[in-house]
Specification:
8 helices; 5 strands
């Protein structure tokens, strides 16, 4: 038996009325979704763990229809959204994204999906290129270091090392907020640097 589902999502309960759960629900119902088969999440788009979407994807079967107000309700980016659509279409599910159109196994709609797949891949390549360019520019800047920036500044470390002359690691950690392992690593690094400096002088 064919079923017509709906999926709606907002980031917060207080989201603007034009994009509210109620407005989205009315839109998908108006286009044929069964009011009893509408799944809704209150999660940010950046989070992949959307429990109701997971439930929905697990119950969708061949010949079912899924209605969604916008692609970004289901996915955090084009690539992720297209991947879900591709999987469902191959399963025999028809997807109606109200601001984009219908996606199913018919040739014309398959062609539209292929275009979206190409766009998603192009978007991914552009993002990777921008990241590479950003790193290249950053490397030219004085003081650039690969990886995460240091959380603690030299001034804070200097203060902590001074305190360690008279207090325990635990006490200094409580005073400065710098974890004990970090304090030990910094003290060891400084001792190694001093030792190398002495060896150079000799």
């Amino acid at each position: 038996m064919k079923k017509t589902y709906g999926y709606i999502r907002v980031s917060t309960k207080g989201q603007a009325s034009g994009n509210s759960l109620q407005a989205q629900k009315e839109a998908v119902i108006a286009h044929g979704a069964d009011p009893d088969l509408i799944f809704e999440d209150v999660f940010t788009g950046a989070k992949c763990d959307r429990p109701e979407l997971k439930k929905l994807l697990s119950v969708l079967e061949e010949s079912d229809t899924l209605i969604i107000p916008k692609l970004d309700r289901m996915a955090r980016n084009v690539s992720q959204g297209v991947a879900v659509i591709e999987e469902l279409v191959q399963k025999g599910v028809t997807i109606n994204i109200l601001n984009m159109g219908i996606f199913d196994n018919r040739p014309a709609n398959r062609f539209q999906l292929q275009i979206m797949l190409a766009m998603a891949e192009f978007e991914r390549v552009l993002i990777l290129e921008r990241m590479a360019e950003g790193k290249a520019v950053a490397r030219l800047k004085e003081g650039y270091r690969e990886g995460r920036p240091k959380k603690w500044k030299s001034k804070q470390y200097n203060h902590a090392m001074k305190l360690l002359e008279q207090q325990t690691y635990k006490d200094v950690a409580e005073i400065t907020g710098i974890p004990v392992p970090t304090l030990k690593a910094e003290r060891r690094r400084r001792k190694d640097a001093e030792l190398k400096a002495e060896q150079k002088i000799i």
